[in-house]
Amino acid sequence: MKVFLELGWFFKQEKKAYISGVFLLLIVALLQLVPPKVIGIIADHINEGTITKAMLVEWVIVLVGVGIAMYVLRYYWRIMIFGSSVKLSKILRNRLYQHFTNMSPAFYQKSRVGDLMAHATNDLSAIQQTAGAGVLTLVDSLSTGGFVIIAMAFTISWKLTLICLIPMPFMAMLTSWFGTMLHKSFYKAQEAFSSLNDKTQESISGIKVIKTFGQEQEDIEDFRKQSEDVVQKNIVVAKIDSLYDPTISIITGISFFLSIAFGAKYVLNDELSIGELISFTTYLGLLIWPMLAFGWLFNIVERGRASYDRVATLLREKVEITDHDKALDTLPYGDIQYQIAEFTYPGDSQPLLNDIFLSLNAGETLGIVGKTGSGKTTLLKLLIREFEGYQGEILFGGQKLQDYKLEKLREAIGYVPQDHFLFSATVAENIAFTDPTATSEEIEHAAKLANIHDDILQFTDGYQTIVGERGVSLSGGQKQRISIARALLMNPEVLVLDDSLSAVDAKTEEAILSSLRQNRKGKTTIITSHRLSAIQHANLIIVLENGQVIERGTHEDLMELDEWYKEMYVHQQLEELVEHGGH
Amino acid sequence: MEEKMQLSEREQRKILFRLLSYTKPHKKMISIAFVLLLLTTIGDIFLPYLVKIFIDDYLTPGKLEFQPLLILGSIYMGIQIVKAVLMFFQFVKFQEIALYIIQQLRIDVFSKVQSLGLKYFDKTPAGSIVSRVTNDTEAIKDMFVTVIATFIQSGFLLTGIFIAMFILNVKLALFCVIIIPILLFVMNLYRKLSSRFYLDMRERLSQLNAKLAESLSGMSIIQVFRQEKRLRQEFGDINEQHYKAGMKNIKIDGLLLRPAIDLIYIFALIIVLSYFGITSFQHSVEIGVIYAFINYLDRFFEPVNQMMMRLSLYQQAIVAGSRVFRLLDEEELAPVQKDEETIAIQQGRIEFKNLSFSYDGKRDVLKNISFTATPGETVALVGHTGSGKSSIINLMMRFYEYERGEILIDGESIRHFTKPELREKMGLVLQDPFLFYGTVKDNIRLHNERLTDEEVKEAARFVQAHTFIDRLEDSFDHKVVERGATFSSGQRQLIAFARTIAANPKILVLDEATANIDTETEEAIQTALAKMRKGRTTIAIAHRLSTIQDADLILVLHQGEIVERGTHQELLAFGGLYHKMFLLQNGAVERLEDVVNG
Fold first, then answer.
1. Segment A225-268, tens digit of pLDDT
2. Residue A232 lies in domain
3. How many structural domains compose chain A?
4. Does B548 share its domain with B491?
5. Chain A contacts of B97, Cβ < 8 Å?
6. If I label B437, which of A60, A117, B167, B257 is the partner at 20 to 30 A Cα–Cα?
7. Would you tell me the crossing angle of helices B287-328 and A274-316 to the nearest 10 degrees?
8. Do residue B58 and residue B104 come from a single domain?
9. What is this structure's pTM?
10. Confidence bin at B235 (pLDDT 50/70/90)
């Protein structure tokens, strides 16, 4: 029940809804007592022949009134209590989302998207259950149960009530026990199901191997076995699930039997009328639900607590990259200087960057080359403050990066990442990602600069074509160029291309680079690349190896030097030849 | 791929009937379940009747004799217990039937998937195929287990209750019939409204989850472009929509589910009480009949509630069913063999004759390919990525159907061999050797049970995979995790070699691994390859030219065409594309410079 305390903030916030909801529930619980009573009274009068027309009309009116009142009240408590629980999951979902947007890449490195999704879906629905059905079962089982017992004991016969209640606790115990067993076996069935899922996934990924070895039939047989396992595990679930109704039926059956057997004795002793006995058995019927609910309550609350713990832990995760109090609210501009003695990724033992000292004047182009894993991308990630915690500093316009508000810093940088990620939206929306109000001229201009405009016009819906995971599939080169257009739309102070031309051919690369040179006069550009042709014209080229600068200078300087850079350059030229069939 | 679907009533009915047709093989089990159901229903109906007898014949007259009452009481408890036991078995039976039906459906879908051509897999994301096989069938299971079973059980009980009412009092029972159209009206209204609002809510939920999943994978982009606020807003909007849809559902449920049914119950109660009250003005009424009627009414409404609550599941299952059936009706089948007669592959002579091929029907990836591999010879395919090497193998392995040109084995079109014959005589080693979950032994043997353990080990020894396998914990029984992630790519390749050798094919098709392989394994692989090729016709895709220097014929592909052909020496002497590729892999800088500048 601790989870109700932990959710206290929400109950407080929604206290009006909860208090009135609970209040309505209580009234409904009281009103529920009326019909059985009426049945008893009328039955007695019929039995004794004392019934009159007026009396009948009177009671019918009472029943109509009670019925309508219950209908209305039941409708409203649902809105109050279930409505609030839906609200709770909405609030938590928004909170989680906001929290996700604040977490740095370091957080995303250590957590899997699937797990984060599970928190936002399964866990939230378990919490919603607790705040809705949990509250309902708690209040309803206590109030209905309590009122019915009171009504039975005080208005009919306390002796009979005691006798009939004897089997009832067994029902709460058994349902709670079944609940635990059901949960366990259900978990096993889920496991079997998810391994069937894995099996299917594997067969589909390995379909070529299966076909190559002509193993289709055998694989189907294997699938049959696994699906048989799913069936067996589910039959266990079905068996436990099927225990509920018979158990309830036997226990209530015993209660009914006791009430009629002992009730009959009291009727003969004139301690009870027949009508009262009928009322009594009808009341007994009303007790089934609260007893069941009490059994369920424990299961709901148990799951809700585990889920809330997980979500709360996630929300407590600290935001790592923040603005300091006096951060400048101005757009950075000017020279960029790296003065880094050492940088190590959180959790790694070896530093990834060592002694990076370089300075780039505003308006110049920096080219960074080197093998995979040499630290090129890391250098860029530090500039956009995706990671921190290096020894030394990076200056932008003479100020430390941390002296600017994060938002301002990033406004000055147009970043084109290595893994070009597009959202499931139109091409236009993807290009105008930073500025949804951009005009179609601005969007097209950016697209033309990135040499993708003509491609886009070829798409079925032009700029309105949906791309991304749920849209048309684009080639790697097209995605890269759309990412470039997205960054260019900002017309940023600094354009950062992180190996973003790898999937376009040499001609397109040259076209893009030259349109950048023409259109970005006076603005800074940083390019990392595997292909040296992309950085050939840079004002400064650095070659990284194991996180250190091993060569630096212009293209001419480095060719002169005749080391890694030159070897690579020649090699790539030959590759280029091969790609074009040797001519 | 989960596009929103609007199905007409007729389509829905068609899907339902097609789903129901899966019950046919279970006739016997179903009859047993129905008998059990009938018995429990009779028990349910009979119990209140016993109490009525007790009240009218014993309690009201006040004659309480021990003997008959003991009998009555024992019968009551006896029926109660027997009923409960039968009920348990009946519930279990119905669920069992449902589970077996779903298993059959699953196997059907899975078998269908296995029979589809690779073209289908190219155009359909793996995730959505998996969804068809598992999640959609699961949704249908929910319908069979809960909806259909509940409907049948409730239907029986309701009929039984009405029969009992008619036996007790025809006139009153007729009055009670009035509530049936009211119930049907409420039910139909609820079904119509909820199917709309419920689907709407599901739709919003899937939007919400899609947005969340996308944001999580694209978070660095969102952050670097400072769009956190805007996306929070967008997410908040979808969340709000979902909340509103959720509220609408709560309202509809509140208006038409339990509260409404309880209200109808009160009206039924009023009818019954008024009837007895009014008749009692003329003559006396048996009080036990009142008890029985009230008790029947109490029992009547619970199944109705159960049925109503399950209606939304029905809708979901129908939508899932339509998706499953669409896959079952898919016509993109694997290429068929015209195997009227069984011809065996004797020598393994392979011939490509003017073969052209296109995946999409627009752009040819292979143009006029012709070559011959005589028995025992090795033909190597080299070329840049996208030059068409893999397509040649795809066609040879019959993953795709070709229309222009011909592929012949021993002079017969490849279409004329039976599939088992092709699979048995042609062994393919894929570039990314796919390992399945299981043991090393399972992975070498695959499902071929005829192979003894000794033969499996022999195959591993032949390709020298045993050296590393022996070092593994449990050796050949070592557990292979998902996709063999704990092995290096070289080790995976060796296991795949052993797999192929164990099958002892006449023709070997190799797609050499490109991934970086450590030198130690590299050597083992080279030795193994050389041994494997001996005595077998081999078609090999080579990325490292060093591995195919001794090939009898090297074909250099560029943009789907064979641009150079000959032996290693001939091609080097020719000084064309092959020469440049060779230099690229082996040459020193100075040599490269000469070529580039020359």
1. 999 999 999 999 989 988 988 998 899 889 888 988 898 888 88
2. 158-271
3. 2
4. yes
5. none
6. A117
7. 30
8. yes
9. 0.79
10. very high
